[in-house]
Amino acid sequence: MTFLDTGRVRLHVQRLTPTGGGPARATVVLLHGLLTDSLASYYFTVAPAFAAAGLDVVMYDHRGHGRSGRPASGYGLDAFTDDLEAVLTGVGVPGPVHLVGNSYGGTVAFSYAQRRPERVASLVVVESEPATAAWAVKLAGLLERVRHAMSTDEEAALDWIAAHHGGHTARLARSAGRLVRDTTIARDVPAGPVLDDARIRAIRCPVLALYGADSDLAAQAPRLRSLLPRCTTELLPGLRHSVLVEAPGLVRDAVLDWVTRHAPPPETAPKAVAAGAEVGSR
Predict the structure, then answer these.
(1) How far is it, in rounded angstroms, from Cα 58 to Cα 99?
(2) Distance CA 157, CA 229 (A)
(3) Contacts of 189 (CB under 8 A, 6+ apart)
(4) Which of 1, 29, 95, 256 is least enclosed, having the fewest CB within 10 Å?
(5) Which InterPro entries does the entry link to (predicted)?
């Protein structure tokens, strides 16, 4: 287990280098979602397949999530974007990377691509959207509902989640409830910076956006195509928001095909450092 101390927060980072050794074809950085998510969602689904396909894989727990530090405050989108920059610097990734973001992880990826276009080779976002004014209103309502439910009758809320979604999800929800109740995340995330249409249009790298066909977010597909000059969208039949969990094989294949088409030739691909290399304090 490796930890990176950014000076603001201690982040849990995992890196998988290409199976069998040799130079990496490209580097993919995997960004997970908000509250009940962590890097484990990738580690136990698509990450090993990416390494087996010759990719350098970097993933980490967002601040407040998984094994990363949980500060009392400081959860604006800029802070998550700063953390991504710190991880790329800390692990020594030399060239442009392919960012793969699930849900809120995709929102962080959009923000980083707008801030540091020279560092991003492409984006793959799963059930995600850029941070806009409408997004902020939606997130504020969602986070407030979670905060209220976990503050007024946590056990009843967890019993309902366990009955409808299973015990594992209820355990994740308990941790998410503590995060919302004990930190300023519910206030900070919606209050963070948003992107207007002009800033979204400034994202020039190739973008692949995957949505469950039955998800509310599927309506984002035509909007993204109209704003982003190099955007491809795919709607996955029969799926809603939990695309990564319910159809990891589809996500794996889509990302591998996408990165293969947008990676540099093998002789110019950056070399990966050894797996498990120390990037910070333990």
Answers:
(1) 10
(2) 43
(3) 34, 75, 76, 77, 104, 139, 143
(4) 1
(5) AB_hydrolase_1, AB_hydrolase_fold, Carboxylesterase_BioH
Residue 174 has pLDDT above 90, yes or no: no
Are 86 and 6 spatial neighbours (Cβ–Cβ below 8 Å)? yes
Q: Supply the pLDDT for residue 142.
A: 85
Q: Checking DSSP bridges between strand 2-5 and strand 10-16, what pairing results, if any?
A: antiparallel
Of residues 95 and 210, more confidence is placed in 210
What's the pLDDT tens digit per position in 252-269?
999 999 999 998 665 444
The average pLDDT across 80-109 equals 96
* Structural domains in the chain, sorted by start: 2-130+194-268 (3.40.50.1820), 132-191 (no CATH)
- Residue indicated by tokens 């998510």: 37
Q: Is the pLDDT of residue 209 over 80?
A: yes
Residue 59's DSSP bridge partners are: 14, 30
Q: What mean pLDDT, rounded, does the chain reach? A: 87
pLDDT at 145: 78
Q: Which helix (H) or strand (E) element contains residue 157?
A: helix 154-165
Residue 92 structure tokens: 């020594």
Cβ-count burial 83-116 (b if 16+ within 10 Å, e if not): bbebbbebbebeebbbbbbbbbbbbbbbbbbbbe
Report the distance separating Cα 274 and Cα 127, nearest Å: 32
